[in-house]
Amino acid sequence: MSENGSGTSGTRVPVLDALVRTFGCYTGEVLRRHAAPLGSWRSEAVWGEEVLVVEFPDATADPIGKARAFLENDLEDSAAYYVSYALKELNG
Predict the structure, then answer these.
(1) Could you list the residue range(s) of the whole structural domain that residue 73 is in?
(2) pTM recorded for the entire structure
(3) In angstroms, rounded to a whole number, what is the distance separating the alpha carbons of residues 4 and 71?
(4) Structural domains in the chain (count)
């Protein structure tokens, strides 16, 4: 494995969809439970695919998409930063 987390050919290793979904759902549930008011999960069609999002009165969060970005891009897309930023915005 090379220094950038890719395979020996220089291409990135694919992230497992189950890992992305599990990490995203966990992140979304932390966000949903700690925001005021509480958010709720719902399914939304995005680019022809059904995705789960967390809906709040004035915002919608895509924690599963964020989890994919974090696992593919490393610290460039930190989940911790995402949750703390979203809670700050949602809670005022």
Answers:
(1) 17-91
(2) 0.67
(3) 13
(4) 1
